[in-house]
Design a protein that fits this description.
By secondary structure, the chain is α/β, with parallel strands linked by helices. It is 31% helix and 18% strand.
Length: 353
């Protein structure tokens, strides 16, 4: 029987910018995280799963951990310290037009007034960040920023002068309304062409300052599409994607680099299970957790542009068809029941030669 000293902990990973059939759109991985939160004591996941533009869902036992920080956590180099509230610093790209900047500032003020979030004064970068978007041969998205030093200087100012404990970044992204990739994404069949560049931006801040960070792109409003996919619809609700980022960061666990003997800290050695798309097992977090006692649950129906299954990497895993089946495996694992015992064709034990 589990005790409060041994909470059942699972990690949910749906990689960013790889065209995941579930979780590759506007927060459509959130229902999976919420369901896992009902069968696990703690669920650790990343912004790609929980960000739904102006839609979000806070749950005390679901932890919002940026991807680079999650990699360090899985490698047992950083721990997580849950908090009641973070003071959030806001960075706005100098390349954002005045009207669009005002929309984002009003969104930040709205979260302060209606949700009670603690947001510091904002900083505008001293140079435009100049984001560029790229596509890999695999079809996955990635990107670069021309002035990373400007981003880091803005973050340092918020940390040192305003006492920010988490950083929200809004960068001006290129408007490419007629691109085939955007149209595919809006119709529920493509890759999020912004996601890879977003990850680069947040990784840079987290790696440098070791504090929670997440990004929301600034884009001009796009024309209505009567054939829009429900999975992409959350991004069409207004002028900004910022609210979900601010909500996520408001209670994102802080990173710790030394174990302090606190029962509240969470470390990678405590992860009981990892749920991941079957074809996307090549990430650092997956590789680190696969080299431990963590049970790896690989979901077949969540197809991606990647072709890196557990078998290719020699990773022992439990293959399931759906997230519904993955939830069943989590319940059985938590109860100490072998999933083989739930199969009607259970075979006899064998003698080792």
């Amino acid at each position: 029987m589990l005790t409060s000293q041994n909470p059942f902990t699972a990690v949910l990973i749906i990689p960013t910018g790889v065209g995941a059939a579930i979780g590759g759109y506007a927060g459509d991985g959130m229902p999976i995280a919420r369901a896992m939160g009902q069968v696990c004591d703690r669920v650790i996941t990343h912004p790609n799963v929980l960000n739904g533009a102006q839609l979000y869902w806070s749950q005390k036992n679901i932890y919002y951990v940026e991807g680079y920080g999650l990699d360090r956590f899985a490698a047992k180099q950083w721990g997580l310290q849950p908090v009641s509230q973070n003071k959030i610093g806001l960075i706005l790209d100098r390349g954002i037009e005045a009207d669009l900047r005002l929309r984002h500032l009003q969104a930040a003020d709205a979260t302060r007034a209606t949700l009670g979030l603690d947001i510091t004064d904002y900083v505008i970068t001293d140079q435009p960040l100049e984001v560029s978007l790229k596509t890999a041969d695999s079809g996955a998205s990635w990107g670069t920023i021309a002035n990373p030093g400007s981003l880091l200087r803005a973050a340092e100012k918020l940390i040192t002068q305003a006492g920010a404990e988490a950083i929200a970044i809004v960068a001006r992204f290129p408007d490419d309304f007629d691109s085939p990739s955007l149209q595919d994404y809006r119709h529920g069949s493509g890759v999020d062409h912004l996601a890879g560049a977003e990850a680069v931006i947040s990784h840079l801040v987290v790696r440098h300052f070791k504090i929670p960070a997440a990004h929301a792109p600034a884009l001009m409003p796009i024309a209505l599409d009567p054939h829009l996919s429900p999975r992409a619809a959350a991004e069409e609700l207004g002028y900004t994607f910022l609210p979900c980022v601010l909500v996520g960061l408001s209670q994102a666990p802080r990173f710790v680099t030394n174990y302090e003997g606190s029962s509240q800290q969470i470390w990678g050695s405590e992860v009981d299970a990892l749920v991941v798309p079957e074809t996307a097992c090549g990430g650092n977090s997956v590789l680190s957790l696969a080299n431990s006692d963590t049970v790896i649950i690989a979901v077949r129906e969540n197809t991606t542009q990647m072709q890196v299954p557990p078998s290719m990497l020699g990773i022992k895993s439990i293959g399931v068809n759906s997230y519904l089946e993955a939830l069943g495996v989590l319940v059985a694992h938590r109860a100490g029941i072998s999933v083989d015992a739930l199969n009607p064709s259970l075979s006899s034990i064998r003698c080792l030669s």
